Structure formats: structure tokens, C-alpha cells
């Protein structure tokens, strides 16, 4: 097990010799119309960030500064964000975030066929950089993790592959790829969304779920990708093909998030969220309005980096008894104007305007939204560029809301410009 007092220079050397591949090509269809114009990693989160910022920030803060981002589904928004927000790494010191769009590099007919294929098609770029280790990451989860600690554990245990895992209740494990492990956390089995997940030794009610984080020795990875590419029946996926083949034949170890999570409180659980549904997305954002949220965005030692427009401060105007501009238990970003209206337990992204006598409660309002006078929004997710008409009431009558908008299983209403008949209005993702 990794000791936090291990030689930091040893970890620094490991991170310098590592190339990170961030897989960011997925749509995230369970987010419904929120991903009609953008890939899931480009979805806005926490008032000013995009989801992918958390994975990229983990890389940079860990000292891994050679990063490739594989894109595919509706990547324009994601590419633009990375170009604007992640160009600060200095190529003169061999530091970069390099975009790797699907370019049909191996087969002129095929795009990326799976997670493993996305890495396989970019093997020539990996070879050019000559890393000792390849860190494969998903670009669509929210967490803070020091990958250097995971690398140190990988090397010290002599693993061919290490899988990042999170401890989950056995009942929830059916939604994940589950690692069966022995007493030393060596992986002995891997099952994709099993009906009967294997429990952690000594913890019959818990299981180890894969986080989609993998460390490979580079030569070993190349061998496995080439072998898999030659299999005509393979789906070219790490979870479905690569890992099940490797586990019974090579040394695969599990690394628990609790051993490398950043900012975890004493005795607390490590923070990790898959915001893959409207309900999960809403809940994870709403957690941030609490007095002390589990995810600390104010940690100066582990900042979350992003592209940030140069905007004026948020502004609150009018102080009459029935027309007061105020926000309570909320996050309000730059360029917002709350004019004689009330915002409670909500997140307002940049350049949101809330006009007089409007009310916003328990809602996520994405950038460039204009909320008209007397409008009422409760338990909503409002997509970028929406113009909420004066007097519109949402979140009070679910049956009425379903006629115009998408209402989730837990009663969260998603509003997009298209639903409002505004699909042609500044419709940039």
C-alpha cells in the first residue's frame, strides 16, 4: 500500500515519465437534450467549469503534463474549451494538452470503435513521446485525485496494470464494472455490470467498482492493444475486452480512491460522482450550495483550472420590500445581474440575467440565460442561451411541464432553447 510519506522525488519522476490519455468522445445520452449539442465532458458544472476540467486538473496538479484528449461526438464545444482554457502548458518544457479527434487513422472507414480503439489509433503519438507509463482516464467524472500516488503504488507492486476503484455498496455495484480482489487487492476477476457482484474480502456488503482509470506499463499496453486489434470479434473496449483478457494472465492490481483522494475529510468517504443522468447532474450541483459541501472548490493547493471569460462582477440591484435583488445559499458567477429578484439554493453560470419579481429556487442556470419578469423556476436545469418568457412558471405543475419540457424521474425539469422554440437563438454549445 502506498505510504504518503514516500519520497516525493520518486513520484515526481514517475509522473514526468507518464502520458495521460483522456477519453472524452462520449455523448452521455442519459443527460438527454443537455448533450444534443455537446459531448458529456463539455457539459457545464459547478458554476464556472466543464466536467472535463476536473480530470485535466487532476493531471496537472499531479505533475502529469503530457496529456492527450481523444474526442469524437459533437466535439466543437469541447475542442474550443480546451484550446482557450488549457493552452497555458509550455511546450518548450514538453508540457501540453493535445487534442486527438477521431481521424480514421487506422481504417479509413472506422471512427473510434471503443475505449481501447481510441488509444490504439493514437499509438504512434504515444510512441513519439516515449512514456514509461500510460494513464488512461475518463473525461466525464467529478473527483479530485492525486494520480502520482496511484503511479507509485503501481510501480511498487510490480503490476502490469492497475485499475482505479471506488468502494460502493453491493446493491449499487450492479451498475459498474466490478473488480473481484484477494486480500492484497490483486484483481482476480472482472465483471461488467454483474447481477451478483463479488464482495470485498472482509466486507460482505461492499464491492470495488472500476472508475475507468487505468495505468499500464507502456510496452505491455501496446502488446495488448495490438493483440486485441487482431481479434475480429472484439468490441475494442477496455472493460469488455482488454481487462477480462488480462486479469487471469497477468498481474493486475486494484487501487482504491481512498488511498489517493485529495481533500477527503478525516473519516469521510472519498468524493466521486458520475453525473450521467439529469437527476445525478442536478444533485451533484445542488450539493455545492451547502454550507460545507463534500467537494471543496476553494482548495488553493489543488485548484480546478478552466477557461474563464473576462467578465464584470456579479451585480445585485434594488432593495425594496417586494423587489429585492438577492441570492441565498447560491453560487453566482461573473457577469450575472440579479435585478429585483430572488435566487435560492441555485447555481448561476456566467452572464445570467434574472429580471424583477422573478424567483429561482433549487435550479441550475447555464450561461447566457435571460429570465423574464415574474417567472418562477423550481428544481430546473436551464440550458445555455435560453430566454425564459415573462411570467413562465416551471416546477409547480409536473403534468403541465411535461407537455413542453423534459421532466426526470425525480421531478427535475430540463429546459433547452429548442423546447422554447428558440433553437436559432445564439445556439452555441
How does this structure look, described?
Homotetramer. Keywords: ATP-binding, Carbohydrate metabolism, Glycogen biosynthesis, Glycogen metabolism, Nucleotide-binding, Nucleotidyltransferase, Transferase. InterPro entries: ADP-Glc_PPase, ADP_Glu_pyroP_CS, GlgC_bac, GlmU/GlgC-like_hexapep, NTP_transferase_dom, Nucleotide-diphossugar_trans, Trimer_LpxA-like_sf. The protein has 429 residues and is an alpha/beta fold. The chain contains ten helices and 31 strands. The strands form seven sheets. Strands 1, 4, 5, 6, 8, 9, 10, 11 and 12 form a nine-stranded mixed beta sheet that branches. Strands 18-21-24-27-31-30 form a six-stranded mixed beta sheet. Strand 30 and strand 31 (413-415) form a beta hairpin. Helix 1 (8-16) packs across helix 6 (147-156). It is globular, with a radius of gyration of 23 Å. The two termini are 43 Å apart. The model is unreliable at 1-5 (pLDDT under 50).
Beta-strand content bin = 25-35%
- Averaging pLDDT over every residue, what do you get? 93
Helical residue percent band: 10-25%
Extract low-pLDDT stretches: 1-5
Structural class: alpha/beta
Helices, by number, come to: 10
Largest sheet: 9 strands, mixed
| Terminal Cα span | 43 Å
Q: Write down how many β-strands occur, each being a DSSP E stretch of 2 or more residues.
A: 31
- What characteristic shape results from the CA principal axes? globular
Rg, Cα atoms, Å = 23 Å
Amino acid at each position: 500500500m502506498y505510504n504518503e510519506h514516500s519520497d516525493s522525488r520518486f513520484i515526481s519522476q514517475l509522473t514526468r515519465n507518464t502520458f495521460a490519455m483522456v477519453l472524452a468522445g462520449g455523448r452521455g445520452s442519459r443527460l438527454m437534450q443537455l448533450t444534443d449539442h455537446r459531448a458529456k465532458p463539455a457539459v457545464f458544472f459547478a458554476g464556472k467549469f466543464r466536467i472535463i476540467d476536473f480530470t485535466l486538473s487532476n493531471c496537472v496538479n499531479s505533475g502529469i503534463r503530457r496529456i492527450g484528449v481523444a474526442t469524437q461526438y459533437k466535439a466543437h464545444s469541447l475542442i474550443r474549451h480546451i484550446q482557450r482554457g488549457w493552452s497555458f502548458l509550455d511546450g518548450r518544457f514538453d508540457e501540453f494538452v493535445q487534442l486527438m479527434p477521431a481521424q480514421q487513422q487506422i481504417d479509413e472507414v472506422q471512427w473510434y470503435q471503443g475505449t481501447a480503439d481510441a488509444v490504439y489509433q493514437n499509438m504512434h503519438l504515444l510512441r513519439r513521446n516515449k512514456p514509461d507509463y500510460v494513464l488512461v482516464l475518463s473525461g466525464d467524472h467529478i473527483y479530485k485525485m492525486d494520480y502520482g500516488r496511484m503511479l507509485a503504488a503501481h510501480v511498487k507492486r510490480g503490476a502490469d496494470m492497475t485499475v482505479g476503484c471506488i468502494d460502493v455498496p453491493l446493491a449499487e455495484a450492479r451498475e459498474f464494472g466490478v473488480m473481484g480482489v484477494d486480500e492484497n487487492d490483486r484483481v482476480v476477476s472482472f465483471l461488467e455490470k454483474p447481477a451478483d457482484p463479488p464482495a470485498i474480502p472482509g466486507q460482505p456488503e461492499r464491492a470495488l467498482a472500476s472508475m475507468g482509470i487505468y495505468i499500464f506499463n507502456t510496452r505491455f499496453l501496446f502488446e495488448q492493444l495490438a493483440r486485441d486489434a487482431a481479434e475480429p470479434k472484439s468490441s475494442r473496449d477496455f472493460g469488455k475486452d482488454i481487462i477480462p483478457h488480462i486479469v487471469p494472465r497477468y498481474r493486475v492490481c486494484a487501487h482504491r480512491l481512498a488511498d489517493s483522494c485529495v481533500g477527503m475529510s478525516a473519516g469521510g468517504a472519498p468524493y466521486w460522482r458520475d453525473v450521467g443522468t439529469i437527476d445525478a447532474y442536478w444533485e451533484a450541483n445542488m450539493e455545492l450550495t451547502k454550507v460545507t459541501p463534500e467537494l471543496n472548490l476553494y482548495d488553493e493547493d489543488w485548484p480546478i483550472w478552466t477557461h474563464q471569460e473576462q467578465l464584470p462582477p456579479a451585480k445585485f440591484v434594488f432593495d425594496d420590500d417586494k423587489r429585492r435583488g438577492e441570492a441565498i445559499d447560491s453560487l453566482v458567477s461573473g457577469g450575472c445581474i440579479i435585478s429585483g429578484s430572488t435566487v435560492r439554493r441555485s447555481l448561476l453560470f456566467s452572464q445570467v440575467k434574472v429580471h424583477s419579481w422573478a424567483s429561482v429556487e433549487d435550479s441550475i442556470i447555464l450561461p447566457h440565460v435571460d429570465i423574464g419578469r415574474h417567472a418562477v423556476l423550481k428544481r430546473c436545469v436551464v440550458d445555455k442561451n435560453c430566454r425564459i418568457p415573462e411570467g413562465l412558471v416551471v416546477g409547480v405543475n409536473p403534468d403541465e411541464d411535461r407537455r413542453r419540457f423534459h421532466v426526470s424521474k425525480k421531478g427535475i425539469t430540463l429546459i433547452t432553447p429548442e423546447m422554447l422554440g428558440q433553437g436559432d437563438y445564439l445556439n452555441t454549445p
